[in-house]
Amino acid sequence: MDSTLISKYNVAGPRYTSYPTVPYWNVDSFSLKNWKTSLIKSFEETNDTEGISLYIHLPFCESMCTFCGCHKRITKNHAVELPYIEALIKEFKLYKAILGKRPNIKELHLGGGTPTFFSVENIRTLLQTIDRIGKFRDDCELSFEGHPNNTTNDHLKMFSAFNFKRVSYGVQDYNLKVQKAIHRIQPFENVKRVTEASRNMGFTSVGHDIIFGLPFQTEDDVRNTIYKTIELKPDRIAFYSYAHVPWIKGNGQRGFSTEALPSASQKSRQYQIGKKLLLDAGYFEIGMDHFALPTDTLYKAQKEGKLHRNFMGYTASKTKLMIGLGASSISDSWYGFAQNTKNIEAYKDLVNNDIIPVFRGHILNDEDLKIRQHILNLMCNFKTNWEDDALNFKELNDVLIKLKELEKDGLIEIGNKQIVVTEKGQPFVRNICLPFDLRLQRNKPETKLFSMTI
């Protein structure tokens, strides 16, 4: 990556797990009533064909990782588990009552927080009840996020009994100095143990999450982490850029100085080193930040043009409707978004009073739906087109004018009714999506909302 381009395009921008992005939701016109309407519409269109996705947020962690921007509650009190599980179950029952019949579940993901903070017994109760309220399809893809330090063989045995085939483990970096800075100390032996144990339990897609751009991280640290990762040969790898957003309340990122962070050019170099090592080891780049072996479903989905991106990141199992359960979870009906209240006590109180715990959301208009599809095409397939008039929109020419500079720099190729991202442009895909983001373009933020794109 050219240092001039890094300097030019290292601006704040969304990661585009949705469009519109959360800061640009029209919350004033949103209501629980119109959210339910969009939910029912999507469910009736797809439940009998593709089914629905479920994201379940399990927010508890025993210690604070200072690189993390997720919503979580730090506690060592495991008595919090069962009341929260009971609230999740009740929330799903509330959704079933709205939908009117049993949902067919095509995809389920347990995220956090630390899902393996929860006991085997409590997770088993949750999954059994979810399967009674809804129904896991035979082709359902079930996955969870595991912590290498506390994912036990009993956890893996239980998940395997429910036919979980995919797990992702947070690795971040193996250098002890970096681990101390981000408050996430886990030796290579722990990662090796859970990776091998997962495979022995029948998991066919074991993923590792690695981050570059962390405090005190050097190029040699990235090399060492990638070498160790290749030694274990996970099926897919998320190779993320650290998102420094210390203004977000409660994420712990104020625990170290910004001077400890690599510069934009150093981060770029770390990315290039890691990418080359992964490609040389037989991995293929998938969308943004992800790599997979050719045997993994993520690779196959990209090859078949079926790769999808939502609030869970990249997925090989596309559904129009995703219901998010738990504090802070976001649901997506395709026609609308709805986010649950972030406070755990408020969440439980609302659910226990038979109230869907949504506190904000957005209903997409016709323009939003077209822009959403273009951004999804770019993020998943590195190309988009408007050959179908259904994807044409009033301000398209203005967007193309803004994209001319990126074409001049060799990041995209603009053809007859299409845009293709070049290999040179792939690391800048967030920048390429920015001109399409009409809500952001019409109302540029005056304060910090997003992390830097590089």
How does this structure look, described?
Strand 4, helix 4 (120-133) and strand 5 (135-146) form a beta-alpha-beta unit. With 454 residues, this protein is α/β, with parallel strands linked by helices. It folds into two domains: 1-20 and 366-454, Arc Repressor Mutant, subunit A; 25-363, pyruvate-formate lyase- activating enzyme (Alpha-Beta Horseshoe). The longest helix is centred in the N-terminal third of the chain and has 19 residues, at 81-99. It has 15 helices and 19 strands. The radius of gyration is 21 Å and the shape is globular. The chain has helices spanning 3-9, 32-46, 81-99, 120-133, 153-161, 176-182, 188-200, 219-232, 264-280, 297-303, 344-352, 366-381, 396-408, 429-433, 438-442; strands at 52-58, 60-61, 73-74, 104-112, 135-146, 166-172, 205-212, 236-241, 284-286, 290-292, 308-310, 313-315, 322-325, 330-332, 336-340, 358-363, 383-385, 412-415, 418-421.
